[in-house]
Specification:
The complex is a heterodimer. Chain A is 47% helix and 6% strand. Chain A is built from twelve helices and four strands; from the N terminus they run H-E-H-E-H-E-H-H-E-H-H-H-H-H-H-H. Chain B has a single domain, classed as Carbon-nitrogen hydrolase (Nitrilase/N-carbamoyl-D-aminoacid amidohydrolase), CATH 3.60.110.10. Chain B contains nine helices and 14 strands. A six-stranded mixed β-sheet of chain B has the order 5-4-3-2-1-14. Chain B is globular, with a radius of gyration of 18 Å. Classes of the chains: A mainly alpha, B alpha/beta. At the A-B interface, helix 1 of A face helix 1 and strand 10 of B.
């Protein structure tokens, strides 16, 4: 008698990337058009997240409607710069460079004892200032590049990387961004390099986080869906990894919200007075 | 034959006048197709996610009827039946409602107020809306019909009740944010098709699903509107995400022979008295 084994039955992170790409392209187009924009600004770091965002934007709007920005600081890795050029060339988007060194150093000179971490945050916020100014200059909406893993870990500079109003990758784990990058034809050297914020020399994400992305993402998916720790450990993850992931998520909820406001009335915004961000009325 | 047009449309958030004009323009393009019945999605005049904005944008049923009747009178010689989902204001109460309008005829023929208000995950309807409490079939110019809105239809017991009450066609305005991207189509689109085929095949009736499209602040309404026939077959199917009009004929005369060959509805009627005490017990214990 023939023995037929059932298919495996567990949470999977792998997605139908062509379908995801098509959906995100439509998302970019509709969110921009709904806000009266036809063009986008993407700050391109040389990493995989901004490469994927640029590829999607170029597909959605046409390469000539996308403004790619390279925003290096003198301490940035030269590889970041060359990878930003490679990505822009691959997707046919012109790359504009604005050196943020004078902005950052202008502040740093007045601030004795500034630590590398603080300076890294200033760099990220200087990039945000340039991105929004270019948005105004070109009437082009900034696209965010933050993925779900870094958003859940709070692994970003608050009010910098998270500030663009439209973000196509924010519900994709890093593992899924890699999958999407391969589908979109992001150059291999960018997909396969060690992810880095490049805010401090020699920095890598996975060293900072204390857990590998591919492992963290499976833990996150199960944790967010409410599986208990024992279940996740039984899948082959260590209690220490699970604890690291949960700690990072639960220490950073504030970074995924607007600031806490003292509630004094029954019309407090986003507490009582609730409207979705795309809400309009005919006279509004 | 009853010619149906299923309108898979994308509204602009809160722009009621513009959205109704868009619907009217879609129907105007079908002027030579002799459409008898048109079906628009859930919450079409405003868009789906409004939160507390329901209070500002809900319409009285009479307002909607007057507006569409005036348009119909200016453009049509013959009656047109139109099913449209909208947020309804009735005094101080707010509902997620589907109206069946016999334009150029008896006007508002029936309204169904959504019973199952999803209030989980991405949904928050019961915070802002009242539940409907009735599920009734009604007689149109063509036959016996019922309307169910979105989650109403995800509980197949509602369609069973409609079928037992004699429905030959169930109209389902819906708004369904796409989620689940591992397969060939979004998982919710697959689920909708499975449901429509299951219900239509079980009861030997037609199901007309009109599903919203458009990105509502990142929630990509999936579309996937369809018409399913009495043997559980898909007669017409719209692609996900994009605006589309499905044009298809409903042949209610197929229903008796299909039900004769596959008498599940008759069997349900016969068996219902046997299982009803159990159902009553469950309800009484709630």
């Amino acid at each position: 008698m023939k023995l037929i084994r059932g298919a495996t039955n567990h949470e999977v992170l792998d997605l139908n990337y062509p379908l995801v790409a098509k959906t995100l392209v439509r998302f970019i187009r509709e969110e921009l058009n709904g806000r009266g924009y036809e063009e986008a600004v993407v700050a391109v770091s040389g990493g995989v997240d901004s490469a994927v965002t640029l590829a999607l934007a170029a597909r959605a709007l046409g390469p000539d409607k996308v403004h790619a920005l390279s925003l290096p600081h003198r301490d940035s890795s030269p590889e970041s710069r060359s990878h930003a050029e490679l990505v822009a060339a691959r997707f046919g988007v012109e790359l504009e460079t604005v050196d943020i060194t004078p902005m950052v150093e202008g502040y740093a000179e007045q601030t004795p004892g500034i630590t590398p971490r603080r300076k890294g945050n200033v760099m990220a916020r200087a990039r945000m200032i340039v991105t929004f100014d270019k948005s105004e200059q070109y009437h082009a909406l900034p696209l965010g590049t933050g993925n779900k893993t870094e958003r859940l870990f709070g692994y970003f500079t608050w009010h910098a990387d998270d500030s663009p109003p439209v973000n196509p990758l924010g519900d994709l784990y890093k593992t899924q961004v890699w999958g999407l990058a391969e589908h979109l034809g992001v150059p291999d050297e960018i997909v396969h390099k060690a992810p880095t914020a490049d805010l401090e020399p020699g920095q890598t994400d996975e060293a900072d986080l204390g857990v590998r992305y591919r492992r963290a993402d499976v833990i996150l998916e199960h944790y967010l869906k409410g599986y208990p720790d024992e279940y996740i450990v039984a899948l082959g993850y260590t209690p220490a990894e699970v604890a690291t992931v949960k700690r990072r998520v639960n220490r950073t909820h504030y970074k995924r919200h607007l600031p806490a406001v003292a509630l004094l009335s029954s019309t407090a915004i986003n507490e009582f007075y609730l409207r979705p961000l795309d809400f309009r009325t005919e006279d509004g | 034959m009853v010619r149906h047009a299923i309108l898979q449309l994308k509204p602009a958030k809160g722009q009621i006048g513009r959205n109704l004009e868009h619907l009217e323009a879609a129907l105007a393009k079908l002027a030579t197709e002799e459409v008898d019945v048109a079906v628009a999605p859930e919450a079409y005049p405003t868009g789906y996610f409004l939160q507390g904005g329901v209070r500002e944008l809900a319409l009285e049923a009479a307002e909607l009827e007057d507006r569409l009747s005036a348009w119909h009178a200016a453009h049509y010689q013959k009656p047109l039946d139109l099913i449209v989902g909208f947020y309804e204001r009735d005094g101080g109460d707010y509902y997620n409602t589907a109206a069946y309008l016999e334009l150029g005829g008896r006007g508002l023929l029936h309204r169904h107020r959504k019973i199952f208000l999803p209030t989980y995950g991405v949904f928050d309807e019961e915070r802002f809306l009242n539940r409907g409490h009735e599920l009734k079939t009604f007689t149109t110019r063509f036959g016996r019909a019922a309307m169910l809105i979105c989650e109403d239809f995800w509980h197949t017991v509602t369609a069973s009740i409609a079928a037992l009450q004699g429905a030959e066609i169930i109209y389902v305005p819906s708004a369904s944010p796409a989620r689940g991207f591992a397969g060939a189509r979004p998982a919710n689109v697959e689920r909708w098709e499975t449901l429509a085929r299951t219900v239509s095949g079980e009861h030997g009736l037609y199901v007309a699903l009109a599903s919203l499209v458009g990105s509502e602040a990142g929630k990509m309404m999936s579309g996937g509107s369809l018409l399913a026939g009495p043997e559980g077959e898909v007669i017409a199917h719209a692609p996900p995400f994009t605006e589309a009009v499905l044009l298809a004929d409903v042949d209610l005369k197929r229903i008796p022979p299909v039900r004769y060959d596959n008498p599940l509805l008759a069997d349900l009627k016969a068996g219902l008295p046997l299982i009803f005490p159990e159902l009553r017990k469950i309800v009484e214990e709630l």
